[in-house]
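Saturday, quiet lab. Running sequence design on the structure tokens for the scaffold JK sent over.
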């Protein structure tokens, strides 16, 4: 079937036929005459729809206005608790190892270690020195050094601007 269609199309192409009806297909001397002639086109006028539509052969079509759902603005997550303390970061020596919840620790992630918060808890961490903040997910246990309250993955520490200093005073907001 495919070959037959291709052969038919090729035959039309090679024969010089335009595929147009004889009134519109012109060649040679007729082309100059056809270009100067005026072509009349009949246009059917559109009648407005009436409310008292009588039975007719053609169905009456009324435009329907699209109904779009009303979008509600996203709500900011509620803060369950707030605390302050020192944050540190960890990373290069632990990349590829498993975290306490079983995930593979990867560079650049926005995760953190906390001593008591459940795994999967979202925490907004704000660096009190420069005002930068980011939201991290708890997936590990720690920190186990001094009085630090959270241990950030390298990606989160980079967002907060505490990679070079190593330690910073932060505000923790546990989100619901």
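Result came back. Writing it out in full:
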């Amino acid at each position: 079937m495919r070959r037959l269609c291709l052969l038919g199309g090729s035959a039309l192409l090679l024969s010089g036929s335009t595929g147009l009806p004889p009134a519109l297909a012109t060649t040679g001397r007729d082309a100059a005459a056809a270009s100067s002639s005026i072509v009349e086109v009949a246009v059917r006028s559109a009648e407005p729809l009436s409310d008292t539509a009588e039975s007719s052969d053609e169905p009456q079509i009324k435009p329907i206005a699209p109904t779009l759902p009303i979008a509600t603005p996203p709500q900011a997550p509620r803060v369950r608790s707030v605390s302050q303390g020192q944050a540190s970061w960890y990373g290069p020596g632990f990349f590829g190892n498993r975290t306490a919840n079983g995930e593979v620790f990867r560079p650049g992630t926005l995760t953190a270690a906390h001593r008591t918060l459940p795994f999967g808890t979202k925490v907004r961490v704000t660096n009190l020195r420069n005002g930068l903040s980011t939201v991290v997910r708890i997936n590990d246990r720690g920190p186990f050094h001094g009085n630090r309250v959270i241990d950030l993955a390298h990606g989160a520490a980079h967002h907060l601007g505490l990679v070079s200093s190593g330690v910073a005073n932060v505000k923790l907001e546990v989100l619901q």
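Notes for JK: Confidence is low (pLDDT under 50) at residues 1-14, 19-26, 28-35. The first strand starts at residue 79 and ends at 90. Ask whether to fix the surface positions before the next round.
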